[in-house]
Specification:
This protein is an all-alpha fold and 165 residues long. Among the domains are: 33 residues; 44 residues, no CATH class. The termini are far apart. 0% of the residues are buried.
Length: 165
């Protein structure tokens, strides 16, 4: 029995060592960002996104090999404007349940929280541009909605203080 446990431990340590060597080129910050994005990603999107990344990386590595001109093209860098999701514009479906509405509100709040500080100026400019594209009635609805959101946030904070005190 001790031999079996030592073999298992050796295999585990060997695997951990190989994993560390593989991750050596990735900074802790990059790995944390990747893990954060992956955990926030809807579960049903994870497998297709991983398949896309694996396919693209394999193609990139193939193109870097000596004599890779056989495939007929070079892949020189990632496209910073690439999109993994198809954008659909038009009327959005009405929420079917309170839970679905709560999750949408949570996603929107987290999306705002995950905008990097270095992109604040871009966010501000894009938001102003979006406001210019809205009708006066749509802008008024957004203003009213945001005032109600602030009121609900203040109500929540009051409830939290009351429970704590």
């Amino acid at each position: 029995m001790p031999y079996s446990k030592l073999t298992t431990l050796f295999t585990l340590l060997e695997t951990a060592s190989a994993l560390l060597e593989e991750l050596e080129g990735v900074s802790d910050r990059q790995l944390a960002r990747l893990a954060g994005v992956f955990t926030r990603m809807p579960a049903e999107d994870r497998e297709p996104i991983l398949a896309i990344l694996e396919r693209e990386v394999e193609l990139r590595l193939l193109a870097r090999e000596p004599g890779a001109t056989v495939i007929g093209f070079d892949i020189v860098r990632p496209n910073p404007n690439a999109r993994l999701y198809i954008r659909v514009f038009g009327r959005q479906p009405v929420y079917h349940s309170r839970d679905e509405l709560m999750r949408a509100t949570l996603r929107a709040a987290r999306m705002m929280l995950h905008t990097p500080e270095r992109m604040h100026d871009d966010w501000e400019a894009a938001t102003l541009e979006a406001f210019r594209a809205l009708t006066p009635a749509e802008r008024a609805a957004i203003k009213s909605h945001n005032q109600e959101m602030l009121s609900l946030l203040e109500r929540f904070e009051g409830e939290t203080k009351a429970k704590a005190g």
